């Protein structure tokens, strides 16, 4: 798709860090139609470390939010596509999938639900907090049965990452300081290759640099907050939400100490 756009004289605009999405939306507004090939398989490398993954997720969440801010009026006033397609792109593609999805996961499961435990007058029904989300998550996992055993851990990890995606979404919408931050995602294969071809041992990191790369105070802060809410629910609650909260505390703590992903040796 990008090659076709380039051949027609379209270029990547430096207004965004998600150039592929920018080109796709612009092509759609010119009346192009896309075909989804479900049987096409390509290889993809994973980020080398959790830090690299966080930078990648920041760009993938901040970029679409900022692109939505810059293109929403172009989409609404476009005369080459139908009203239905405008509604789909603005509401379904951008607003729901790129904005609300991250915010809802974070605010509901990491803020509203824990805080509701501290306020006895607020009662979050189990069907809304547990049953419906579990059904939706299970249905989403049907397409990847080989990874079904990871579903439980994936939900907890996604709640942690929703915190970073929500921050990035607000940065993109408000065009804050890191809106155009572009950090090339270091892939695991490149990292291992560079390590194996290195002729001299890399200098040892200072203690400050080590803790700066590994220790994430924001995750640890949320772990403490959820732990307090979980203890309160264990002592005074009646819905047993502390089971989920303590599991989420463990996940936030693991992420806070950087024990996620592959640790690439320094020599």
Automatic annotation (TrEMBL):
Cited InterPro entries: Glyco_trans_2-like, Nucleotide-diphossugar_trans
TM stretches of this protein: 88-118, 217-235, 241-264
Pfam entry (one): Glyco_trans_2_3
UniProt name for this protein: Glucomannan 4-beta-mannosyltransferase 2
Organism: Sesamum angolense
Cellular component terms (Gene Ontology): Golgi membrane
This protein's UniProt keywords: Cell wall biogenesis/degradation, Glycosyltransferase, Golgi apparatus, Membrane, Transferase, Transmembrane, Transmembrane helix
Principal location: Golgi
Membrane topology, from the record: Multi-pass membrane protein
Presence of keyword NADP: no
Localization per record: Golgi apparatus membrane
GO biological process, one term: cell wall organization
Domain Glycosyltransferase 2-like: 10-127
Gene Ontology MF: a single term: mannan synthase activity
